[in-house]
Automatic annotation (TrEMBL):
The keyword Acetylation does not apply. This is FAD binding domain-containing protein. Residues 1-20 form the signal peptide. Residues 115-298 form the FAD-binding PCMH-type domain. Belongs to the oxygen-dependent FAD-linked oxidoreductase family. InterPro entries: BBE, FAD-bd_PCMH, FAD-bd_PCMH-like_sf, FAD-bd_PCMH_sub2, FAD-linked_Oxidoreductase, Oxid_FAD_bind_N.
Length: 571
């Protein structure tokens, strides 16, 4: 009897001790809590970084009397520049769109201001070693890690409140490699021209450097698009229909891994990481410190603005739009590409690389013009306006993205294959009508096609969404909303989700481009990565078992969530 009582007592004692034991750490360290590193610890990190640790105030704080950086003269300057991409690029914590810092400090003294929506500290990195030190610190002290270059991110992945942020802006060295390139490690020689750029390089600087050698890269449509996030998302381009996506043109990368290793990844070294970093998404598998890209001869470009006019009240409006969109595979087969709009009166720019004759353009568009007049006589007018450019840089200088930063919006997108565009005109018409009606327009980017479908990336494949390999069109639209208006924000989400559902239904086996997409896709894993997701998740768990890198919607983010108090915690 005594023995039984003793066993019961020991069992109870064990249960009580288990209840009293501290729970395992379930949240990342957060400013103001006991888990946050001490001021002394942060000072030591700054010393290790030789003074490159920043503790910046929100850029809008200069407009708020309650903030230590308040300055009326600076406020006017900041307010004036807030809608420019360049302002946010040059600031270590600012991002392009206000929603992603939760409107915590706008340059308006009549709104609230606090640092709660921004990273707490920033590593101003100019070497891979600086990034390694930051990653090691975040891993050791369980601090949430953020990565920002330009802040040009439609999904908000380059801002994490209460984090340690890696700012790659000053990793911007650019080197042109003429004739051949020797892979690090294996010594394999790749034939052709290439360019090696720092992970913080921006499109304009790369284009200018390549143009000096009469070359171009498969690159983005905005001057301030950063190379790191662009490549890790896949990277569409008007050159993609000929040369494949940007990720298909990568030869080699230098990467800082979640474990703090500085590695060279190519087809012969760290193959899984090389595969994942080309299309698997940013802020997930590591930080790109440099990347080597294949370059291509800079072509002459014929810019074509084709315009289709009819009475917007005519019942044929969406029949006309559907017909033009259905012709995209034929147009792209003849070399056309571009960032196009579908509107009730269709006016859209496209490009034809390596064409300098108006006769070529007329031959391409005459069948379309004839069909329009045969099917809808006297109800439609069709014109083309041609502009010749002597090089890629000449075209880009006049046609880069001139949209404004500041404000807030969400995007939604879908990749459309040949079957969607040509298989069932009535379903395509209904889907386009649903997508166009709320805002009056959608973008119909001709950036897929043969070059993407037949791409041969180094190593045989990469992590780009397989839906790209059948796509012709990247269709997208956006919905804006104002600050401090949750109803308007929720309405924007609902509108976008509803208006693109018919396009999803039209393309059940397709997906979307991760860098320009709806952040709230119900099955983001399938939508953004398709059949590649299982391999990506395995790689993520192998190289980052404790989730040093985390973002949403990103590979492997299922184990964590951001709570209302801003903390990142395990589910």
């Amino acid at each position: 009897m005594l023995s039984s009582n003793l066993q019961l007592l020991l069992c109870l004692a064990g249960s009580i001790c288990g209840l009293c034991a501290p729970p395992p750490e379930s949240c990342k360290a957060y400013p103001g809590t006991s888990s946050w590193p001490s001021a002394h610890t942060w000072a030591a990190l700054n010393q290790t970084l030789n003074g490159r640790l920043l503790q910046p105030s929100p850029p809008g704080a200069v407009c708020h009397p309650s903030q230590s950086t308040y300055n009326t003269s600076q406020c006017s300057l900041v307010a004036d520049e807030w809608k420019t991409y360049e302002f946010h690029v040059a600031n270590p914590i600012s991002v392009m769109w206000d929603k992603f810092d939760n409107f915590t400090c706008l340059p308006d003294e009549n709104t609230p201001c606090s640092p709660a929506g921004y990273p707490a500290y920033v590593v101003n990195a100019s070497t891979a070693e600086h990034i390694k030190i930051g990653v090691d610190f975040a891993r050791k002290y369980n601090v949430r890690l953020n990565v920002k270059n330009t802040g040009h991110d439609y999904l908000g992945r380059s801002n994490s409140p209460g984090s340690l942020s890696i700012w790659t802006h000053n990793l911007n060295k650019i080197t042109y490699n003429k004739g051949q390139y020797k892979l690090n490690g294996s010594g394999k020689v790749l034939q052709g021209n290439s360019i090696t750029v720092g992970g913080g390089s921006e499109m304009w600087d790369i284009y200018v450097a390549a143009d000096k050698h009469h070359e171009a890269i498969v690159g983005g449509g905005g001057k301030t698009v950063g190379i790191g996030g662009y490549i890790t998302g896949g990277g569409h381009s008007i050159f993609a229909p000929k040369y494949g996506l940007a990720a298909d043109n990568v030869w080699e990368m230098e990467i800082v891994t979640p474990g703090g290793d500085i590695v060279i990844a190519n087809e012969d070294r760290h193959q899984d990481l090389f595969w994942a970093m080309r299309g698997g998404g940013g802020s997930t598998f590591g930080v790109i410190t440099s990347v080597t890209l294949k370059t291509h001869p800079s072509p002459k470009i014929m810019g074509v603005a084709f315009m289709m006019f009819t009475d917007p009240k005519e019942s044929i409006v969406f029949d006309l739009i559907t017909y033009i969109v259905s012709q995209i595979p034929i147009l792209m087969a003849q070399g056309l590409s571009g960032y196009n709009l579908a509107t009730k009166n269709m006016t859209t720019p496209i490009q034809i690389p390596d064409v300098d004759s108006p006769d070529v353009v007329a031959k391409i568009f005459n069948p379309i013009n004839e069909t329009l007049h045969e099917r809808w006589p006297d109800k439609v007018q069709f014109y083309t306006l041609l502009t010749q450019y002597d090089s890629w840089l000449a075209w880009f200088s006049q046609n880069y993205d001139t949209n404004q930063a500041g404000g807030s919006q969400y995007l939604v997108s879908r990749l459309l294959d040949g079957e969607a565009l040509t298989g069932n005109p009535q379903k395509l018409k209904s889907a386009l009508q649903a997508a166009i009606t709320p805002s009056g327009t959608i973008s119909v980017f001709m950036v897929g096609g043969k070059g993407v479908q037949e791409a041969k990336p180094r190593g045989g494949s990469n992590a780009v969404n397989p839906a790209w390999r059948t796509a012709y069109v990247h269709a997208l639209t956006s919905e804006p909303f104002g600050p401090f208006n949750k109803t308007a924000e929720n309405n924007a989400k609902a509108i976008l989700d509803k208006e693109f559902q018919p396009l999803r239904d039209l393309t059940p086996k397709s997906g979307a481009y991760i860098n320009e997409a709806f952040p709230f896709e119900k099955n983001f894993q399938q939508t953004f990565w398709g059949s590649n997701y299982a391999r990506l998740l395995r790689i993520k768990r192998e190289i980052d078992p404790t989730d040093v890198f985390w973002c949403a919607p990103c590979v492997g983010n299922e184990r964590w969530e951001v709570r209302q108090d801003g903390k990142l915690c395990k589910k």
